[in-house]
Amino acid sequence: MRIIREFTKGFTTELTPFRLVLGLCPTLAVTTQADNGLGMGLATTFVLVCSNVLVSLLRHIIPQKVRIACFIVMIATFVVAVELLMQAFFYPLYQRLGIFVPLIVVNCIILGRAEAFASKNPVMYSAVDGLGIGLGFTLSLTVLGGIRELLGTGALFGHPLLGASFEPFGFMIKAPGAFVTLGILLFLMNLLTSLGRKRAH
Amino acid sequence: MEYLVLVISAVLVQNILLAQYLGNCPFLGVSKQMETALGMSGAVIFVITLASVITWMIYWWVLIPLHLEYLQTIAFILVIASLVQFIEIFMKKTMEPLYRALGIFLPLITTNCAVLGVALLCIKNDYSFGEMLVFSISSSVGYALALILFAGLRERFAISRIPEPLQGTAIGLVTAGLMSLAFLGFTGMT
Amino acid sequence: MWTAVLIMGGIGCVAAVALGVASRIFYVKEDPLVNQIEEALPGANCGGCGFAGCHAAAVAIAAGKAPPNICVGGGPEVGARVAGIMGMEVVAKEPELAATDCCGGQRAAEKFFYNGVQDCRAAQMLFGGSKLCGHGCLGFGTCAKSCPFGAITMGPDRLPVFDPELCRGCGSCVRNCPRGIISLVSSTAKILHFNRYTECLAPCRQKCPAQIDIPTYIEHIREGRYREAILTIKERNPLPLTCGRVCPHPCEEVCRRGVEDEPVAINHLKRFVADWEMNQGKHLEVPMAPPTGKKVAVIGGGPAGLSCAYFLRRLGHEVTIYEQMPQLGGMLRYGIPEYRLPKRILDWEIEGILRLGIRVRTEVKFGDDFDLEFLRAAGFDAVFLSVGAWDSRRLGIEGEDLEGVWDGIRFLRLFHLGEPPEVGERVVVVGGGNTAIDAARSALRLGAKRVVLMYRRSRDEMPANEMEIEAAEAEGVEILFLAAPTKILGEGGSVRRMEFIRMRLTDPDPSGRRRPEPMEGSEKLMEVDTVIVAIGQSPGIDFVREDKLTGQLRVTRWNTIDAQEETLQTSLPFVFTGGDCFTGPSIAVEAIGAGRYAARCIHYFIVEGKIPPIPSRQRTLIKDSLLEHLEGVQPVPRVHPHELPVNRRIRNFEEVEHTISPDEAQREANRCLRCGLICYNRDVVEALIEEQTPSEAAAVS
Amino acid sequence: MNEITKMVLVTTVICVFAAALLAGLKQGLSARIARQEDYYVRGPVIQELLKGSPNDPLADKVIIELDGEEVGVYPWIEEGKVRRIALERHGKGGYGGDVVVMTAVDLETDRIYGVRVTQHKETPGVGSRAADPVYLKRYQKLPINQEIRLTRDGGQVDALSGATRSSTAIADGVNRAAQFVLKHEEEIVKRILEKKM
């Protein structure tokens, strides 16, 4: 039962970056297209699951003082592995994500989960926690990327959807669009939550 | 002249926060108060510069000769994390006032993507030592600029009537978007 | 491959060695609580909480400046864990509770710079319309939402109501309040605070010598929150039962309702809640600061001494009261007759003060039984000298030493020493103060047929309380104005007759005072059995001994102890004074205020070594706050408590005035205009609320 | 001291394992990564330059180690003969560092067949204009047996006005390719055909 709860919380109470406002840099930077968001999300999920498992396994061995350094090395290892795998198998995605692939290392979600959850929980739960949070993050990124791609270029996952008469707002795929879209999504989520709460009353 | 272009580009056109999307988590967290924003800015300038120098040396003097470029991410982050932690411990003991002003922000930026981001950009763009130094300093100054401007804006939120669901991070993000739009105006000015 | 392994291993090794060595060499001791909390936090240093990393957040949480659930990265379980850690540790420190603390004035000007308006009205300019402004609150409810412990609710008038039981002092509301008017206030801070000119103070609050927060406790009574009302009063006055009965309530003189209507019966309201507490049969717990280990001796257990001891104790110090009489209370016990202040009530009130842990030594006289040298040797860090003013002034006329001539204080004191004085059938009381009235009314109750009060000025100049004068007249005391005794004639050593002379008042002198002067040749004789002289008191300073430390105490020419106005410090730095022995005879509430001020000075003196001055300390009424005219105030009849009928009361010492009923208290509290709590026209605001309430109700349903 | 030893040990061991894992992964994947890089970075350029070749120049790429450096050569093979080859050289002297130039040489005429820029860091809108294929047409048909230089250096190609340094770097890159082909033509052809067999 607990396993299910640890998994689903990544989509509900601990949905990043909406519920836990973390991991904003990749969220903002790579979500110009839905498939970028998906790719980034999956890469992050992979690293998150692997590092959670490893941290959980080694949680009793690592001394306090070098905890951060050790965790970061483990995470970085997986990130570089992802980087290499991506170069070997998804080169165009690697090109588009660019510098943000190595920057998965410093995504606070990963280190945060490692410290907050994996270093205190058994392997199984840690893996599920990583998977849940990671997939929640992937979902958020894909949705955000979808919205920006659709409004910014009129296409979704590269397929034109809105027809030739659609005048894309270039603003959406630029930096300001990223901030504003995320802000508005956050606003809508807050609005829905408060409406839901009111109805529950 | 080249350096001037580099400075303007790094501070304004390619502002690390608002155009390159690096270091956003602390950006939204720390910008709630001007005081913390100022402390954070100082620490960011210090750490980014230091980290860039160290990683540049590691890359060009160690990794390149040994053909280990693919280890840059892991080597950089390990070095940055340890170095910053070391400085923090050192500062806390020997330079108490400085530690209070800047040092407490150090751990915050160890894992700030702006630090690793700037270090990686320096490598990616093949900067010489001088260029790397100028780029890292001006990038971090750009970060500081955006952070301080934003903190000024956010302090005004305190007395504004903001619709409830927009309060907090949501309005922060929208405002950051508008600021970013303003910085977008610098594009093409160099 | 091997180079890779070597290089990474090398970097890792060097990093670990450097960190290990550094953490040894540059070891800084950390608060274990901080470490514990930091352990529980994610350590991702993401900065999402607004603090500079997890360590800084842990420090803030440990200091109570951040709520335990501040971490955005860790999610709920981290919050719960931190709250657990905090829950175990938080008890040790003095609780700081959230409270709205707007005091308007200049602080409003700091917050708003709109349209040049520099005070609370700026908020109105900003948000439009009349605004019911409790403490400058905008009524958004941000604080209620931000409270992680659910201690804040929005009251019916959309002002936050703080539940002290639930409040953990996390400060979340303080940070989130858009107006910045909530602060964490420890009871220490509240006790140490004195009115300032820069604050928004209702006139009653300015006038009250004890600086009781009158509008707030009336507000509490209005809402039926008697417990809060009592706690509000007790932040300033430990003797509400007593004051509720004997206080001449100077506050009511300046009540703004009094401008258009009769003033609010503030003192009756105070008496009402104080009686409520007593009728519960249990003393309410008051917040106490943790012990400081400092010791203070209080010499004299009158209102000033009791008040000082009470506040010092609440500030965490050890206090011992030395009293020369058999029981505590000073003038309250020995100077005020039973029919005004029943002694069982005073006993209950004093018991409530002493149960905080104050030690008492009675029947020890300062100067004879102990002295300053003894107190020093006993390890007291400071001494509060509040011996009162017990020496009666003498008339200085012939026959003053005859039998049947009493001094007023001694006369009143005898009641409580178990031997009521005997009076003749015809009694003359000389003097116009409350002591004179008390003596006259007491004489009546002892069986005197005719009691004449002789006062050398006219009724307007009489220092006694108007209500007391009226009560005395109602009971049959004759008052002879503009007369003064010149000679007391006796037979066989006892008083028989008194010669007195008529007086007239001079034209006002440059200072505006009209002095009495005798009218030559108007002497008359009067048959009299008892003469009570109550023309004023002065401190008895017979404890001053040349060869002792007390000899170094400076004394003024009025026989009061000299001390610095700002610090109440005498010429001996560790000796403080206050109350009647410093100011000369005055009313109880004055002494109570002085007691708290002395407690503040002593607290700073023994804790910090120096006493910081209070910036712009309010001493006189703030001129702008006194109005000549008030619009829109409709007269509402003032409450009149039930009184014992005259024929029943003059036979005995039963309490004359009764306490008002809860309904009456409610009604009376509603008469309060809530000055200082409301910035704008009350009628408009109430109309506005009525207008909005139904539509709101519809929206919710 | 015990604690420090443990710290150092754990950290070092983790680092060593990380490095070993990554080095292994890198070794295993490097061939595939290089192919992907060719395909996605140089692929489009080669396809443009060697448009119409019957073979797949990317698949037939050979790496030639000569003069102490590795050079990838992409051939156009027709009827068993190497007709044209494309190769990448770094042109020195650009404003933002090296300009990487892909040069195609017609081996039958010993003339330049086409030029494309694959990587540069020139100022956008200024130096970057020199990477425009229209400008690069000027190199077509230049004989490789003489030094290729800009006219201002006494050569045959006009610089793009306002982008002299970028133009110089491109000319340098083309020249290096030309010199390389001139010097090693036989060796290159031999290797290509060896691989093809």
What is the structural class of chain D? Answer: alpha+beta
So what's the overall shape of chain B? globular
C-alpha Rg of chain D, in Å?
21 Å
Total domain count of chain D: 1
CA gyration radius of chain B, whole angstroms: 17 Å
Number of folding domains of chain B? 1
Tally of extended strands of chain D? 5
Oligomer: heterotetramer
Q: What characteristic shape of chain D results from the CA principal axes?
A: globular
**With helices defined by DSSP (H or I, 4 residues minimum), what is the helix count of chain D?**
3
Strand order of the largest sheet of chain D: 1-2-3-4-5
Structure, described:
The complex is a heterotetramer of chains A (201), B (190), C (701) and D (197). In chain A, a hairpin with a 2-residue loop joins strand 1 and strand 2. Chain A has one domain. Chain A contains eight helices and two strands; from the N terminus they run H-H-H-H-H-H-H-E-E-H. Chain A has a two-stranded antiparallel ribbon. Chain A is mainly α and 201 residues long. Chain B has 190 residues and is mainly α. Chain B has one domain (11-23, 30-184). Chain B has helices at 2-13, 24-30, 34-63, 72-94, 96-101, 106-110, 113-124, 129-157, 169-184. The radius of gyration of chain B is 17 Å and the shape is globular. The model of chain B has no long low-confidence stretch (mean pLDDT 81). Residues 88-93, 104-119, 121-132, 679-689 and 692-701 of chain C have low confidence and may be disordered. Chain C folds into five domains: 32-92, 3-methyladenine DNA Glycosylase II, Chain A, domain 3 (Orthogonal Bundle), CATH 1.10.15; 97-195 and 676-701, Alpha-Beta Plaits (2-Layer Sandwich); 201-285 and 615-631 and 638-675, Orthogonal Bundle (Fumarate Reductase Iron-sulfur Protein, Chain B, domain 2); 295-389 and 555-605, FAD/NAD(P)-binding domain (3-Layer(bba) Sandwich), CATH 3.50.50; 392-538, FAD/NAD(P)-binding domain. Chain C has 28 helices and 20 strands. In chain C, the strands form six sheets. Chain C has a five-stranded parallel beta sheet. A five-stranded parallel beta sheet of chain C has the order 10-18-11-12-13. Chain D is α+β, with helices and mostly antiparallel strands and 197 residues long. Chain D has one domain (47-196). Chain D is built from three helices and five strands, in the order H-E-E-E-E-E-H-H. A five-stranded antiparallel beta sheet of chain D has the order 1-2-3-4-5. Chain D starts with a helix and ends with a helix. Classes of the chains: A mainly alpha (201), B mainly alpha (190), C alpha/beta (701), D alpha+beta (197). The interface between A and B is large, with 43 and 48 residues.
